[in-house]
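Q: Structure tokens for this one, please.
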Amino acid sequence: MFDEVAKVKSVGIIAAIFLAGAAAPAFAKKVELSETDFAFEHVSCTGAANEIRVLVTGVKKSVGLVTVDLFPNREEGFLRGRGRLDQVRFAAKAPVTKLCLHAPESGLFALSAYHDENANGDFDKTGLGLPAEPWGISNNPKVVFAPPPVEKALFSVSADSAAHVNIDLN
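A: Here is the predicted structure, written as tokens:
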């Protein structure tokens, strides 16, 4: 009896995750951005070579911190602390948090972001291991059952001009 109940609960949870992931694009509001949206001032923006100008959209409240991680073009370590090249944290500002970070060199990179609503320095998860705080990945790839491969999140950084990246929080 207990095994049957556990199986039904597991199937229900998986179905809910699948349905939530499948339904998300239908309800998602596409944010239209232009080059002028990336012409902002922030203490982290210095105009140095390999600068990445980031707009984190979908920030619901101006509480806590927005954390952005920079990853190299490597599948190993992508979306894991050990694979991170850099991390920045700034006060969350609704509806858009703007910031900059700098890649160590020109090339292909990926970003992840999350809204650390309680400012505890951790990406909080539910008891099931699902994200409990809003999060996003560069290029805003569709995520249903597992994190996307790094190639879905890559963008180009050049020493000549700043890279512009928008991350919509889920």
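A few notes: The chain has a mean pLDDT of 84. The longest helix spans residues 2-27.
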